[in-house]
Amino acid sequence: MECGSIYLRFTNGINNMTISNDPDYQAWLASRTKLPPKVRGRPPKYIEHKGQRHTLCEWSKITGLAKTTIKQRLHIGWSVSDTLETKELVNQYK
Fold first, then answer.
1. Crossing angle for the helix pair 67-75 and 56-63, nearest 10 degrees?
2. Sign (positive or negative) of CA dihedral 62, 53, 46, 50
3. 73: which of 4, 22, 55, 83 fits an S-S bond (Cβ 3.0–4.6 Å)?
4. Helix, strand, or coil here: 13?
5. Coil, helix or strand for 50?
6. Where are the domains of the chain?
7. pLDDT tens, position by position, 58-69
8. Is the pTM of this model over 0.85?
């Protein structure tokens, strides 16, 4: 049985167990190549500090700093240790 609706298979007494035990179906299934799952988005960027390696989001939870704060500090040239260890807000316009 190449194709058929669920209704026709049901009325003819063919169910999923019958199809899965069919040797032709087993050969067809074995011949298919399994593709790896599709990766969505960019891979995470890791930040290493004092021997610990975490993502930006994880460092945000660990330090209590906002993700945008960490990202901006690194973007303007702060070192990783200064970025993660400075808790107070630094106002550059004072």
1. 120
2. positive
3. 83
4. coil
5. coil
6. 1-32, 46-85
7. 999 999 999 999
8. no
